[in-house]
Specification:
The chain is of the alpha+beta class and 59 residues long. Helices cover 22% and strands 27% of the residues. The protein has a domain at 13-50.
Length: 59
Amino acid sequence: MYQSLAPENDSAELNVLNDSRKYFSYNDQDLHEMLRIFVSKNNLKFTVSIETPSKAFLD
């Protein structure tokens, strides 16, 4: 059974680069579907980066 974990930072965004195209995943379901499509098309090489919003420094 698949069980998703609650992220520590709800605003984190996963960026996936595959075949020079950039895809965005905002939740576990998006990422799961994206990876399923890549595998079904035999696109097994991709890069994942995690981006979080910057917070301004306080004076």
